[in-house]
Write a structure and sequence with these properties.
Length: 490
């Protein structure tokens, strides 16, 4: 079968966000029931916003929640119960059914439809973006779940039960998608996507910078498992004199119903209950460094000068029940009763991350540039993102134990630890993923509520039950504490 799946509704900037995640549920991998609103083909201009919105929905909602809790920025509040199973590391087999469907049907599949389009003249820039977003979504999928359907799942010939590609194969494909996207982005006289591109507004130079930064991220992900491949890939990338991102890549949301930040939208659906509160793990680290960003990432309780935090998994601990704890702030979209959360951006890659990636490449000797200066740029970018000043960053850089002093002692540890601080609330999944790759930060703890025993912590997402039961080529379940391929950190 050759699948066709997308939505044609448009609202925000002429583009609807919620519409792209509907129409879920059928027996075949990417098949859908006949729907008059979803014909067998659509223009790339209609498909592109569905891909961007779907990826942002995944990154900004379920991946953000799991990453935020397992990355120990957030803890489950004592006064509610929505995410207790996450603190227990006890995930229901159906938990990822919807997210898997959004990732494959609305993101990967619709990107492939743009790539396969033969009817729209001069659509090379649309195809370039589709290849780059396909690479981004593929990395999300494989970093989260491990082996995933890719080559057969998106093959024009169509497969009802696509085989799973090993992570090494998926990563090879990611690099190929990025190379193709970069080449197509430089096609002269192609149609510019303009406002249909919610991420870059059709700025193809920015898309090339995004692709270069994503390629750097992907190669560094392999630094432990395939260091020679990672080094060769990064050296080849730098030989092209690449431009990297100097700004966040994100979708800006509105307060209009259906177009809010995905995490806030979920909290609205849960009756504005504040399930997420400040985790002791992150806040203690911020406090140890006298880091002013803590007051941007979390809100103080009324009449309290500090951030009040809860240890990971302590939601039923009588030492902590019956009290109130600081919620994440509206800046990151996680304050349930603050409508400003609705407009918080979902960051696919941040400016700070771009600098930290470049700093790591330089520290490893695989990329050019001044590692210390790039490290400092990453910290400054994070401070700006939280409304602080360069002067604030300079003071912090000189005095904080995890800034210049740690860089002098262990530059790689310093880079990843500072990346962790910068990603608080914005990029929870990526922060948790980098911890899996590097073991940094080294102060994460096992949840008090864990059912895994033996000091184990989650190292992957469980496969969705829909895939387990409907795909005849499903390779078998993996324990949640089994590392993915590139995770070789002890």
């Amino acid at each position: 079968m050759n699948t066709r799946y997308y939505s044609l509704n448009r609202r925000i900037a002429g583009i609807g966000l919620i519409a792209v995640i509907g129409f879920l549920g059928c027996s075949k991998f990417l098949d859908i029931n006949e729907n008059p609103n979803n014909p067998d083909s659509a223009a790339p201009s209609l498909l592109l916003p569905t891909v961007e919105a779907a990826i942002s929905q995944v990154v900004g909602n379920q991946f953000q929640i799991y990453g935020g809790i397992w990355g120990q920025y957030w803890a489950q509040n004592v006064a509610s119960s929505q995410y207790q199973t996450l603190e227990q590391y006890n995930i229901n087999s159906s938990a990822f059914n919807n997210t898997w469907s959004i990732l494959y049907r609305s993101a990967l599949n619709n990107a492939q439809l743009i790539i396969n389009d033969r009817e729209t003249a001069s659509a090379e820039h649309y195809k370039a973006i589709a290849y780059i977003l396909k690479a981004y979504a593929a990395q999300l999928a494989t970093d989260a779940f491990g082996s995933v359907p890719m080559s057969e799942a998106l093959n024009a010939a169509g497969f009802d039960n696509p085989s799973y590609d090993e992570q090494r194969v998926v990563y090879d494909s990611i690099f190929q998608y990025l190379d193709t996207g970069i080449a197509l982005a430089q096609t002269p006289n192609a149609i510019n996507p303009g406002a249909q591109d919610m991420l870059m507004g059709g700025d193809m130079d920015q898309w090339v910078a995004f692709a270069n930064t994503l390629k750097l991220r992907a190669y560094l992900r392999l630094s432990g498992v395939e260091p020679q491949l990672a080094q060769a890939g990064i050296e080849a990338l730098y030989a092209t004199n690449p431009e990297f991102l100097t700004t966040d890549v994100s979708i800006e949301y509105l307060t209009v119903g259906g177009n809010e930040n995905p995490l806030y939208n979920e909290m609205v659906g849960l009756g504005y209950t504040q399930n997420l509160v400040a985790s002791a793990t992150a806040v203690r680290a911020f406090n140890r460094n006298n880091d002013p960003r803590v007051f941007a990432f979390y809100d103080r309780l009324e009449g309290v000068d500090t951030i009040t935090y809860l240890p990971q998994g302590a939601y039923n601990n009588p030492d902590y029940t019956g009290r109130s704890y600081s919620p994440p702030s509206a800046l990151v979209g996680a304050r349930a009763n603050n409508p400003n959360s609705a407009t918080a951006p979902v960051k696919l890659i941040s400016e700070a991350e771009s600098y930290f990636l470049q700093a790591e490449a330089a520290v490893r000797g695989w990329g050019s540039g001044d590692a210390r200066a790039l490290f400092r740029e990453g910290i400054e970018a994070s401070f700006r993102a939280t409304g602080l000043t360069t002067a604030d960053a300079n003071t912090y850089f000189a005095a904080a134990p995890d800034a210049e002093a740690l860089f002098n002692a262990d530059p790689l540890k310093a880079i990843i630890t500072q990346k962790y601080y910068a990603m608080n609330g914005f990029q929870g999944f990526e922060a948790w993923t980098e911890w899996r790759r590097t073991g940094y930060p080294d102060f994460l703890v096992v949840s008090e509520a864990s059912i895994l025993g033996e000091g184990r912590m989650p190292l992957r997402f469980p496969y969705p039950n829909n895939e387990v039961t409907s795909n005849a080529n499903f390779p078998g379940l993996e324990l949640i504490y089994t590392p993915v391929w590139w995770d070789v950190e002890d």
